[in-house]
Write a structure and sequence with these properties.
By secondary structure, this protein is an all-alpha fold. The chain contains 7 helices and no strands. The chain is 64% helix and 0% strand. The longest helix is centred in the last third of the chain and has 23 residues.
Length: 138
């Protein structure tokens, strides 16, 4: 969720006139791979948190519709500007409606929910769910 936590407020509210998109910096391959690289360096010292975060970000952007926007995905290779999104005034309602009407969103979100449930069930069978929820460690 980190890319959305960064990009939605920044692109839709702070940079609304210039960008007006909820998929900017946090949805780039550069951002995800930067976290993975930094996390890999820290993992050598036994600190794995940033690596896990980076892998989560890369997974997020690979399954997001940002893959259909190569200019954003490969930013800054295609230029420093992001594509401006039009008609932002109803953005929230449109996104909510997509959960019920857009098969692409329904399948990707449904698949993500199944992965989370399977992961939770696996941790519960291993009696590690409580520890994971308290500490974030596997």
């Amino acid at each position: 969720m980190l890319p959305d936590l960064i990009d939605k407020p920044l692109g839709i509210y702070v940079l609304r006139r210039r960008v007006g998109s909820g998929r900017i910096y946090g949805h780039t391959l550069l951002f995800g791979l930067g976290l993975v690289l930094g996390g890999s360096l820290l993992a050598r010292r036994g600190r794995h948190g940033l690596l896990g975060l980076g892998l989560g970000v890369v997974t997020h952007i690979l399954t997001d519709v940002v893959m259909l926007s190569p200019r954003t995905f490969f930013w800054p290779l295609g230029g420093l500007r992001f594509r401006r999104q039009r008609r932002l005034e109803r953005w929230g309602w449109r996104m909510l409606g997509r959960y019920y009407h857009d098969p692409e969103v329904m399948w990707s979100e449904g698949l993500a929910a199944l992965v989370i449930l399977a992961f939770g069930a696996h941790l519960k069978r291993q009696r590690r769910l409580g520890r994971f929820l308290r500490s974030g460690r596997l």
